[in-house]
Design a protein that fits this description.
Layout lengths: L8 E4 L2 H12 L4 E4 L4 E6 L3 H10 L8 E4 L2 H7 L4 H13 L5 E6 L6 H4 L3 E6 L3 H10 L3 E5 L12 H7 L6 E4 L11 E5 L3 E5 L5 H7 L5 E3 L3 H11 L17 H5 L1 H9 L2 E5 L13 E4 L6 H16 L6 E4 L9 H13 L14 H8 L21 H10 L6 H13 L4
Parallel strand pairs: 1-8, 2-8, 4-6, 5-9, 10-11, 12-13, 12-14
Antiparallel strand pairs: 2-3, 3-7, 4-7, 5-6, 9-10
């Protein structure tokens, strides 16, 4: 077994260091390097011990492994593909950016015996300059996994996350100058006479249906399996559209929903989209916008970085995310919704907007022509020019919130997110 007790060696990205790290991989060591999607940890495809060590260090399953190559010829060499499937994959490669696709395929007898037992393996044809050079200099395909932060289970997409996370793992690490271009895992597609999407990414089912209207294209629900996996790993997230359900038929709760909501905000970071909830930034513990211009691809690019940063904030109990994604028809919005559902273990809270008057909701949203806020008043039904008085009034009325409801919020943020 390899020794992982030493400090890692961080290398600036240039041709010399790439060749040096290739030599380490040829010695059956682990190497972390950037791709267009996330950072990867790779090793020798033909060495059983190093692959087992990779799975052990990152607590991964064999199904997480991906073979990275430069051509489809290598994929055909290692897989059982009939002529129609080969033709289909060749057209997909021509039509789409292959960095966006992990092909999930059945293996043949050309792979080593210890890999053949996995039955299926994912393959990615890389266009990333660093990864392509690495494979070219190694003169063989390499095998690896997308790298997650060891504590927060978030995929690493920039060098800062890598340096903070893997100093003591004892391996060589190539640091990219810029964050990973896509910032999200590729779409995982199984090709077996039909097309089945196992994981959503930037390439969507709509994209595939547009190009292949005569093919059977399915999308598998991945959330339940991920939730079970996350619970076993003890995920630390309490992400949320919501973390409790408020029964709209309970008049006592409805009566106090304004105060409960604002109390919750004081302990939360708000993750917004399209600046739709900037008004809440005044009372929230923190505020960040995935995309102020409502660009869904920008939001997806930012999501792992934002989750990493807010989860490291010590004074925040909750992460509050308003859900604008799961109800959109375009499947690219489903990609972001799916990521968030995975990380919050599909726990959601329903805030009954019926308890707020239309006038209140409109008043919260009111902004000037230049985008600045005209007024913000969540605790008083009437406009108040003095924001401080409104907040003080709210603080004085906290005692009127039902104790069992406040207790639920407090215990959830302290206990539930660690379960």
């Amino acid at each position: 077994m390899q020794d992982n007790t030493f400090h890692s060696h961080f290398h600036a990205l240039d041709d010399k260091t790439i060749r040096y790290c290739v030599s380490k991989l040829q010695e059956n060591k682990l190497v972390i390097l950037p791709s267009n999607n996330t950072y990867l940890c790779c090793t020798n495809l033909f060495n059983q011990e190093s692959i087992e060590f990779l799975l052990e260090v990152f607590r991964c399953k064999p199904s997480d492994l991906v073979v990275y190559t430069l051509t489809f010829d290598i994929i055909k060499l290692f897989t059982n593909l009939n002529s129609s499937n080969i033709e289909l994959i060749e057209t997909i490669i021509k039509e789409f950016d292959t960095d966006l696709i992990d092909f999930n395929l059945k293996l043949n007898d050309n792979v080593p015996i210890f890999i053949k037992k996995y039955n299926n393996l994912k393959f990615n044809i890389s266009k990333n300059d660093t990864l392509s050079k690495f494979i070219k200099y190694a003169n063989m395909p390499i095998i690896g996994i997308p790298v997650k932060h060891p504590q927060y289970d978030i995929y690493c997409v920039d060098s800062e996350q890598i340096q903070h996370s893997f100093n003591y793992i004892g391996i060589d690490i190539l640091l990219g100058k810029e964050p990973c271009k896509n910032g999200i895992l590729p779409t995982e597609i199984e090709i077996d006479n039909e097309i089945t999407i196992h994981r959503r990414g930037l390439l969507t089912i709509d994209d595939l249906k547009d190009k292949y209207p005569n093919h059977i294209i399915n999308e598998k629900d991945m959330v339940e399996d991920t939730i079970k996996s996350n619970k076993k790993k003890g995920i630390l997230f309490n992400l949320m559209k919501v973390d409790m359900v408020i029964d709209e038929t309970n008049l006592n709760y409805i009566k106090n929903i304004r105060k409960v909501f604002e109390y919750y905000l004081h302990n939360s970071v708000v993750i917004d989209f399209g600046s739709r909830n900037r008004i809440f930034s005044y009372n929230a513990a923190g505020y960040v916008d995935l995309s102020e211009t409502s660009n869904i691809k920008e939001a997806i690019y930012n999501i792992y970085n934002v989750l990493y940063q807010v989860n490291t904030m010590e004074d925040v109990s909750n992460i509050l995310i308003f859900d604008y994604y799961s109800y959109k028809k375009e499947s690219i919005y489903k990609t972001l919704s799916n990521i968030l559902d995975n990380y919050c273990n599909n726990l959601k809270m329903v805030i009954p907007l019926e308890s707020f008057s239309e006038e209140e909701i409109e008043r919260w949203k009111r902004v000037d022509i230049d985008g600045s806020l005209v007024e913000y008043n969540i605790t008083n039904q009437h406009p108040d020019e003095n924001g401080k008085e409104v907040i003080d009034e709210y603080q004085n009325e906290l005692d009127s919130i039902p104790e069992d409801l406040l207790g639920h919020i407090d215990s959830y943020s302290d206990d539930e997110k660690n379960n």
